TrEMBL record:
Name recorded for this polypeptide: Protein kinase
CDD domains per record: STKc_PknB_like (cd14014)
Residues binding ATP: K42
Segments crossing the lipid bilayer: 312-330
UniProt keyword list: ATP-binding, Kinase, Membrane, Nucleotide-binding, Transferase, Transmembrane, Transmembrane helix
Composition skew (Basic and acidic residues), residue ranges: 361-382
InterPro entries, A to Z: Kinase-like_dom_sf, Prot_kinase_dom, Protein_kinase_ATP_BS, Ser/Thr_kinase_AS
One term of GO molecular function: kinase activity
Length: 511
């Protein structure tokens, strides 16, 4: 039984209309007669208020959210009891749920989806810093306010890290469309579980649907445990490789490969938003607001004409003067097979999957020289943007100045059983070798820790090297000779593919 519309709780809160209901409570739009403002009130169903566990879970939500003060978390205002009726008072958010928005629009604009994911990640980060795990992250629990901002709500099954769980008889709390594999198996749940659920929410925002369907909740939960996530780029080809990598890493079944924390996930999403801005030349809505909050170094990719629109008029004359040159250059590059940002990314074959690299996974390698080979540009090879590149230093005379080689390597922490390595290079014609190492990385190329695993006889603009699947943590592209007539080598993208490994369920600990 629920409270009737018109009820005045504690002589202060008048229930005006039902706005949502669930198995545990009903949410009302209400009016605070003391402060004369609208609020939202969650009222616990009377028929379950006598259950001590359920009552404690309800009260714990109020205590948990009361610790949080964040612009993307729906705040708790008050909590109380009136004649046995338990209630929590929240700020009232005028708008719709993220789920409603997806149902209404289908696939969200890519930049908007990324912006909402950033806001949700920041909200979860604030909760995780307080030791609070949400455990039910889903678009139904994200409100979009009148200004377009996302706010996370409904910490009804949240718990702090030092609290014993309230699951009973093998029940798994959470919504199975978004449940993490470890939560589905009844294992310990941490902030990484929330990040998995956020990855599924991001997938749904981008594709308009959840990744798994089944005959019942248990069937769907087991798909999260056993099946690979559908390729987001197949369902929506305009999704960039960088964004697809974020989705893949957020939804890794192996906790060692999943994002370790919210900051790491948010940082990669911020990079992706900047890339999307640079690719499209414009973003709208909430993405514009979120973009303005990004660190200055992250916004560096955005064209000046977009970041500073007033300058565009000053360069129109120059643009017109060089237009013919640009058209001719573009035509020439196209005829030579140059890949631009609009081209679809390379697709992996069945049974293999791209390795998700973090933005700091790439490192320069110059063991025989000054130990540096343009380190500031190395992240360009894993940023998903083919218009950015890392280059070697300039070597006059077409040789490497007596060095046996220089290169760049990627860290596939903790390891990857690579079967293909794809290298995009705008300076074809160079030669080299692919090396792998499990530890280190080794300080010298002659170190036995490096193992030669592939040969680059003559690099093309796109070069794919087949590997044998041996697991390595480090994959080195060792450049041994320059292209004819060139003084440097540029690499714009490095992609590593590995065999799909089926997860092995870990036994649940007792207690």
């Amino acid at each position: 039984m629920t409270a009737a519309v018109g009820t005045l709780l504690s002589g202060r809160y008048r229930l005006d209309a039902k706005i949502g209901t669930g198995g545990m409570s009903t949410v009302y739009r209400a009016f605070d007669t003391t402060l004369e403002r609208q609020v939202a009130i969650k009222v616990m169903h009377n028929h379950i208020a006598g259950d001590a566990d359920q009552l404690e879970r309800f009260r714990r939500e109020a205590r948990a959210v009361a610790q949080l003060s964040h612009p993307h978390v729906v705040g708790v205002i008050d909590a109380g009891e009136d004649g046995g009726t338990q209630y929590i008072v929240f700020e009232y958010v005028e708008g719709e749920t993220l789920k409603d928005r997806i149902r209404r629009l289908g696939k969200l604009p890519v930049s908007e989806a990324v912006a909402y994911a950033i806001e949700i990640a920041r909200a979860l980060g604030a909760a995780h810093e307080q030791g609070i795990v949400h455990r039910d992250v889903k678009p139904q629990n994200v409100l979009i306010d009148g200004e377009g901002s996302a706010k996370v709500t409904d910490f009804g099954i949240a718990r702090t890290r030092d609290q014993a769980g309230l699951t009973m008889d093998g029940r798994v709390l959470g919504t199975t469309d978004y449940v993490s594999p470890e939560q589905a198996l009844g294992h310990a749940v941490t902030g990484q579980s929330d990040l998995y659920s956020l990855g599924i929410v991001l997938f749904e925002m981008l594709t308009g649907d959840v990744p798994f369907k089944g005959e019942g909740q248990v069937a769907v939960a087991m798909k999260h445990v056993r099946e690979d996530l559908p390729d987001v780029q197949i369902r929506r080809p305009e999704v960039s490789s960088a964004l697809a990598a974020v989705v893949d890493k957020a939804t890794e079944k192996d906790l060692d490969r999943r994002y370790a924390d919210d900051r790491e996930l948010a940082a990669d999403l911020e990079e992706v938003l900047s890339i999307e801005f640079a690719r499209s030349g414009q973003i709208t809505g909430e993405a514009t607001v979120v973009f303005k909050s990004l660190p200055a170094k992250t916004r560096r990719r955005v064209p000046a004409s977009v970041a500073h629109p007033t300058r565009i008029f000053a360069v129109l004359a120059l643009a017109a003067a060089v237009a013919v040159v640009l058209v001719l250059a573009l035509k020439d590059n196209t005829s030579r097979g140059t890949r631009n940002a609009a081209d679809p990314p390379a697709r992996s074959e069945p049974g293999i999957k791209g390795v998700s690299f973090s933005q700091d996974a790439a490192h320069d390698y110059d063991p025989s020289g000054d130990q540096q080979e343009h380190p500031a540009d190395v992240r360009n090879v894993v940023d998903g943007d083919p218009n950015t590149a890392w280059t070697t230093e300039s070597y006059r005379g077409g040789t490497l100045s007596g060095k046996p080689g220089v290169g760049i390597y990627v860290d596939a922490h903790p390891s990857a059983n690579g079967v293909k390595l794809q290298i995009d290079s705008p300076t074809p014609g160079w030669r080299g070798t692919i090396y792998g190492a499990t530890k280190g990385p080794p300080k010298a190329i002659t170190d036995p820790g490096w193992k030669a695993i592939g040969d680059i006889g003559r690099a093309d603009r796109k070069t794919t090297v087949d590997l044998d699947g041996t697991p390595f943590r480090y994959y080195l592209i060792w450049i041994q000779s320059l292209p004819p007539g060139k003084e440097s080598v540029a690499i714009s993208e490095v992609r590593l593919y590995q065999r799909v490994m089926r997860p092995v369920a870990r036994p649940s600990s007792a207690g």
